[in-house]
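Lab notebook, design round three. We kept the backbone fixed and only want residue identities now. Task for the bench partner: fill in a sequence for the structure below.
Input structure tokens:
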């Protein structure tokens, strides 16, 4: 018997219907099935006993599943009820068979790099006390202007050394997995998701230097809010902190990885050809 958690996009009726069908089928086979709501309640310590997490939704649901695991090395199987579905392993019609195969060990695993994100109030890690906020990102951490606000000025340090100050709508520190998410929409490069690096991409910069930096994964990227304009820090789309002048966000390679279930060829070439229809051109 296996313990399976279903993470469902509750606003997509087809995902909800499939979750109910899948839960009934797995229960009939003798497995223990739980379901998380949008807030993640009902998981808690039960996550320690999980054998598999099945995400039914878009890429955001997979990000939520990884966050719910809070660093536990449990595989995540993504069923694509979204649009592009970069992170999903299978389409809805193959979901039941994919779960059965995964529980039988007939699958591959990709370990994806994550970021550790620390928020330090009023000047950084040399100040008093521990970080005020610690989070982990599979896709990206973003320091950006507050809603409706003006551009922000952000001082960037690399490996503890000052680099430059940016005037922009925001700055994105992305993993290779996140290179096809927000960073992609800001015209950042597409990076093989199994690569290890940190990409720093400005959003609508008001300066001549507007290129993405592709950095060694051991680099700590420091983002300090300069001046009086308010900003926010989001991690994989979750707002984790409101920022004021002097607040600093430090991004570095996490000791955590996300373990995504795959079947067969899930390389970058096939993924891009499938999602962008390149094979037909």
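Proposed sequence:
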């Amino acid at each position: 018997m296996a313990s399976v958690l279903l993470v469902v996009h509750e606003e997509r009726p087809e995902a909800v219907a499939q979750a109910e069908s899948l839960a009934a089928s797995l229960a009939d086979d003798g497995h223990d099935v739980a379901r998380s709501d949008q807030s993640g309640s009902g998981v808690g310590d039960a996550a320690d006993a999980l054998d598999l997490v099945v995400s039914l939704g878009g890429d955001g649901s997979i990000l939520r599943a990884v966050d719910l695991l809070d660093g536990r090395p449990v595989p995540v199987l993504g069923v694509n009820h979204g649009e592009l579905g970069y992170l999903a392993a299978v389409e809805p019609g193959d979901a039941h068979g994919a779960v059965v195969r995964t529980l039988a060990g007939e699958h591959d695993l990709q370990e994806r790099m994550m970021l550790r994100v620390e928020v330090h109030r009023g000047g950084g890690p040399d100040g008093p006390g521990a970080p005020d906020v610690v989070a982990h990102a599979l896709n990206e951490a973003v320091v950006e202007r507050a809603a409706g606000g003006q551009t922000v000025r952000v001082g960037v340090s690399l490996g503890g050394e000052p680099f430059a100050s940016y005037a922009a709508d925001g700055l994105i520190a992305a993993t290779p997995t996140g290179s096809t998410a927000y960073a992609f929409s800001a015209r950042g490069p597409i990076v093989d998701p199994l690569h290890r690096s940190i990409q720093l991409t400005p959003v609508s910069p008001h300066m001549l230097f507007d290129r993405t930096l592709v950095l060694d994964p051991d680099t700590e990227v420091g983002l300090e809010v300069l001046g009086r304009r308010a900003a926010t820090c989001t991690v994989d789309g979750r707002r984790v902190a409101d920022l004021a002048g002097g607040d600093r966000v430090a991004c570095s390679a996490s000791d955590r990885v996300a373990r995504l279930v795959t079947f067969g060829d899930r390389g970058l070439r096939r993924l891009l050809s499938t999602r962008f229809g390149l094979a037909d051109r």
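Keep this in mind before ordering anything: The CA atoms of residues 125 and 131 lie 7 Å apart.
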